[in-house]
Design goal:
224 residues; TIM Barrel
């Protein structure tokens, strides 16, 4: 079975904790990933080489790998340069995700310049483009990304996500498997996303970030 077949129609659980969060630990993220797989997840999305390598020791399902890093001359922080791509290829994650927006990358490079270099270097690797708009998704598909994701919808312009229209339009028109990701908080939203014709969906915060989950419940008590 191919990697794309393995995740088709399934839930991918994002197991990430930033450095300022109490659960920031490769050990904890590995346990999160194991729990997600036992719960029926079809794959894992993880950040950082250390977390990915530890997770892959215990999890046999496909892993979507990213490296979040900030460069002083760019707002792109999800796998922004070839340095991160090289590291992700070396650690063996099955799919590499990267920012596929129209924002400039480090050193002023744009995606249309960067991704062809990546594809030439790694012609057989699966790459997922994290997009914020329909047009970016269509552009990423045309550039040769293997999967198109709605990950960054709403992050750049304040639009409400999940954007089901974006999912539907891309699923019908981009010609590549579409992955719904971003602000899916309930099983009902997940079901609605799947009904848009997507290939798979990623859910993170609603499952693996108890600090954010707690804040939502506390906000409800306060009437916010």
């Amino acid at each position: 079975m191919s990697i794309l077949d393995e995740i088709k129609g399934g839930l991918i659980v994002s197991c990430q904790a930033l450095e300022n969060e109490p659960l920031h630990s490769s050990f904890i993220m590995t346990r999160m990933a194991e729990a997600a797989i036992l719960g029926g997840a079809a794959g894992i999305r993880a950040n950082s080489i250390q977390d990915i390598c530890e997770i892959k020791k215990s999890v046999k399902h496909p892993v979507i790998g990213i490296i979040k890093v900030e460069y002083p001359d760019s707002h792109v922080y999800i796998t922004p340069s070839m340095t991160e791509v090289d590291a992700l290829v070396k650690c063996g994650c099955e799919i590499i995700a990267m920012d596929a927006t129209d924002r400039k990358r480090p050193s002023g490079e744009i995606l249309a310049e960067f991704f062809p270099r990546v594809r030439e270097k790694y012609p057989d690797k699966l790459f997922m483009g994290d997009c914020s708009t329909i047009q970016e998704g269509l552009n990423a598909a045309e550039m040769g990304f293997d999967l198109i994701a709605t990950t960054l919808c709403g992050y750049n312009d304040g639009r409400i996500s999940p954007d089901f229209e974006m999912m539907s339009v891309l699923a019908r028109n981009c010609g590549k498997p579409v992955v719904a990701e971003g602000n899916i908080w309930t099983p009902e939203q997940l079901r609605q996303a799947m009904d848009c014709g997507i290939h798979a969906a990623v859910v993170g915060s609603a499952i693996t970030r108890p600090m954010l989950i707690t804040r939502r419940f506390v906000s409800a008590i306060k009437g916010e």
